[in-house]
Amino acid sequence: MIEFFSYAFIQRAFVVGILVSLCSSLLGVSLVLRRYSMIGDGLSHVGFGALALASVLSLPPMAVTIPVVVVAAILLLRLDGHGRMGGEGAVALLAASSLAIGVVLISYVKGTNTDINNFLFGSLLAVGRLDMVLSIVVSLFVLASYICLYPRLYALTFDSTFAQASGLKVERYTMLLSILSAVTIVLGMRMLGSLLVSALVIFPCLTAMRIARSYKAVTLVSAVQSVVCFVLGFTMSCLAGTPVGASIVVVNLLAFLVFWLLGAMRDRGLFVRKGPSL
After folding, report:
1. CA 177 to CA 197: how far, in whole Å?
2. Residues 6 or more apart whose Cβ sits within 8 Å of residue 159
3. CB atoms within 10 A of CB 66
4. What does UniProt give as the signal peptide span (predicted)?
5. What tens digit of pLDDT does each residue of 14-64 get?
């Protein structure tokens, strides 16, 4: 196992995976608690269409995907609760349309080096040195922004109306949250692909909520759990030869089931020590 991790491409994948897992879990807490969890799935499908467009035009993938997904994230968060369509309808419409457009575009470049499986299910082991540097820079920016904005995101998550009445620029910070989420989704697509990347946003928070009660506790447990699940899933993939993205999601699912069981046992008082009987 030590020899396996001595390869440069394994080290690059490991570093990128940890950073993306950490960013996704932190932002996922705000998204899930605000009931925006499906936006991650919608943005991943938009990213698939943007990647397909970049392949057709022979443009750098990140240069096309990040701006497109950022614009889509801003539109989706602004549509939530407004208009006849609503947020959920907009997510479903945009996700299905982007996926279909992406498949049609990729069909035009069939026979080249384009592999649709890499778009759909990720290709973490194919991360190059330039991709790793870009992922590290973007991930550090997301983490630094999250730490600086933590009090405001906390207020925005639980009561946006009260936050706005208190003088907080709700629209501004909602836009910042959407931009950070979009950038993280784009990075995660390289790891899990457009079909599975939303699991990085949803699973850690839902798992942490089974045993943690406060916002801070959910955030910390979500971050630790996400990184641990990535390490276990990545290791399992290397040892068993299973797909990296699917292995990480399966480990996250197992963690959720374990935490759900522990939470159910705690709620029933099975962890409470009984005093000595008289």
Report:
1. 17
2. none
3. 20
4. none
5. 888 888 889 888 888 888 887 777 777 788 888 888 888 887 887 877 778
Residue 248, φ and ψ in degrees, nearest 5: -65, -40
CA 25/CA 220 separation, integer angstroms: 9
- Asked whether 77 and 130 are in contact (CB, 8 A), the reply is no
pTM over 0.85: no
Q: What b/e string do you get for 239-252 counting C-beta neighbours within 10 Å, with b at 16 or more?
A: eeeebbbbbbbbbb
Tokens 């049609």 correspond to 104
Q: What is the pLDDT of residue 273?
A: 52
User: How far is CA 270 from each of CA 157, 194, 213, 218, rounded to the nearest angstrom?
Assistant: 32, 40, 18, 22
Q: Among residues of the chain, what percentage have pLDDT more than 90?
A: 8
Average pLDDT along the chain? 79
